[in-house]
Structure formats: structure tokens, C-alpha cells
Amino acid sequence: MADNTAHSDAESAADIRFVTPDVSAEEAAAVTAVLLAAIDEGEAEASVPEPVRDHWVRSGGALRAPFQTGHGRWQRAGR
């Protein structure tokens, strides 16, 4: 797996073009490392599936009747 990652990182690094003049090799390497790490982090977050709600939880709202508001509703509940 490390070979595939190194190969794709090299391809991604080759796609980066610096338009600022006089960028040293160390600066270019640092920026490239940060950008590749950010890309990897974004891909990892995108691959995490969203949690699925349980069927019991999803249908729980259908079992509950909505509150009925109005004059005298709470008085009748206490009888």
C-alpha cells in the first residue's frame, strides 16, 4: 500500500505549480506536504459513511400524537 500512496503523492505533487518567483526547494516541499496532507484528510472524511438511524427511532415520531393547545386542555389532563 505504501507504494501506491507514494506514487499518487508524486503524481499530485507534480500537478502543483508555484507562480511566486524565487520559491526555495524547502519552501516548495513544505507547501507540497501540507497540501497533500489536507487532500488526504479530506478524502478520509469523505469516505466515512453517515450514521444510519435505527428503524425504531425513525418511526417513533409517528407513534406520538402532537400536542393539542388551547383553552382548558391542561385542566382536562389532570382529571
Structural class: mainly alpha
Radius of gyration over alpha carbons?
Answer: 28 Å
Strands, total number = 0
Distance between the termini: 71 Å
Order of H and E elements: HHHH
Return residue spans where pLDDT drops below 50 for at least 5 consecutive residues. none
| Major β-sheet profile | none
Helix content: 55-70%
- Indicate the mean pLDDT: 73
H/I helix tally: 4
**Envelope shape:** elongated
Strand content: under 5%
How would you concisely characterize the structure shown here?
This protein is mainly α. It has a domain at 24-59.
Question: What can you tell me about this protein's structure?
Answer:
This is Acyl-CoA carboxylase subunit epsilon. GO terms for molecular function: acetyl-CoA carboxylase activity; propionyl-CoA carboxylase activity. It comes from Agromyces albus. It is a single chain. By secondary structure, the protein is mainly alpha-helical. The chain is built from four helices and no strands. It has a domain of 36 residues. The termini are far apart.
Write out key terms for the chains shown.
mainly alpha, 79 residues, 0% strand, single chain, elongated
Ordered list of secondary-structure elements with their pairings:
Blueprint: H1 2-14, H2 25-47, H3 55-63, H4 73-77
